[in-house]
C-alpha cells in the first residue's frame, strides 16, 4: 500500500512539474490556458504539443537576433570605416613623409649655397591673395626667434609654404600649442617641426643662470617665458654631472626640443590624434647656425614620448621611462622630459580640448585672424637679453 501511495504521489509531482514547465514555456501566449487544461490529462501529448510550437519559434527568434547582431556589427564597421576615411582632413595634401622630404631637400640646397628661392615671385603672391593657404602650405615649424634662424630661408621655401611660429627658445606654451594646432588642423600641414638651434641664447642664458652666473636681472616678462626652458636645462645638467660649463649647452638645446614636443603632445589632444592617425608627422630638429645644416632628431623618440603620455592615467602624470631606441642621448632625454612633466603641473588636458573644438567650428572665419595672431608672437624677441649672455 505504501509503495502504491508513494507511486501516486511521485506521479502527481511529475504531472505538476510538467504542467509548470508547459505553463512557463508557453510564455503567456494565446494557448496558455488551453495547455494548462490539457496537460492535466496527458503528459506525453503535451510534450509533443509544446515542443513543435516552442522550439521553432525559439530558433527563429535566436536566428533573427543573430542576424540583427551581424547586420548591426557590419553596419557599425562600415560606419567606422567611412568615418575614418572622411575624418582625415589632410587627405588631399602630400603625405607627411613627402612633406618632410621637401624640408630636408630644401635645407640641403640652402646649406650648400644652392637655394632656388621658390615661390617668391609675384605670381605666388597673387596666388596667396586669392587662394587658401591650406591648399599649399606643407609644414608647420616652431622655431626660435633668433635672427640667425630665418625659417623659410633655411628650408629654401617661399610664400605660402611654411606656417611658422617663432618664439625665443622655441618653447611650447599655450599660444605656441594653439598655433601648432591651427597649423595642423586648419592650414593642414602634413609635417610639424620643433626646431632648436645651436648657440641658442635663451637656453644659454638659462644654463648660465642655473650654473650661478646669470648676470643682470631679467625684464619682467622674460621669466615666464624661460620657465619653459628651465626644466630642460635642469635635466640636462642633472643627467650629465660630468659635463661642466658651456659644454652642457648643446645637450640642453636638444633636451629643450624634446621638452617642447612633450609639452605639445601632453597638452594637445588634437595633435596627439593627428600623429596617432598618421595625418601628420611630428619631428624634432636642431639647426646649426654655422653650417646651415639641420640635424633631424629621432622620429621614433617622438612616438615613444607619445606612447608614454598615452600610458599615463592623465597627461599630467610623469611619463614612463622610454626604452633606448636611438642612442643613449634619446633615452636620457626622455627621462629628463618625464621629470620635467612632474614639475609642470597644471591640468591642461581639459583646457586644451576646448580651443581645438572652438577652432574647428570657426575654421574659415578665423583663418586670417589666426595668422595675424601668430605673427605678433615673433615680434617680442625677448631673446636679446639672453643673447647678450650667450
Ligand atoms: Zn634661440
CATH first level of the largest domain? Alpha Beta
Helix content: 55-70%
The largest sheet has its strands arranged as: 2-1-3-4-5
Number of domains: 2
Query: Roughly what is the average pLDDT, rounded to an integer?
Result: 75
- What is the fold-level CATH name, i.e. the topology of the largest domain? Beta-carbonic Anhydrase, Chain A
Total beta strand runs: 5
CATH superfamily of the largest domain: Carbonic anhydrase
- Give the class from helix and strand content and strand pairing: alpha/beta
End-to-end Cα distance, whole Å, is 115 Å
The major sheet is characterized as: 5 strands, mixed
Q: TL;DR of this structure?
A:
The chain is of the alpha/beta class and 390 residues long. It contains 17 helices and 5 strands. Strands 2-1-3-4-5 form a 5-stranded mixed sheet, with helices on both faces.
Task: Describe this entry's structure for a reader.
- By secondary structure, this protein is α/β, with parallel strands linked by helices.
- It has two domains: 84 residues, no CATH class; 298 residues, Beta-carbonic Anhydrase, Chain A (3-Layer(aba) Sandwich).
- Helices cover 60% and strands 7% of the residues.
- The chain contains 17 helices and five strands.
- A five-stranded mixed beta sheet has the order 2-1-3-4-5, with helices on both faces.
- Strand 1, helix 6 and strand 2 form a beta-alpha-beta unit.
- Bound molecules: zinc ion (ZN).
- The site of zinc ion (ZN) has 8 residues, from helix 8.
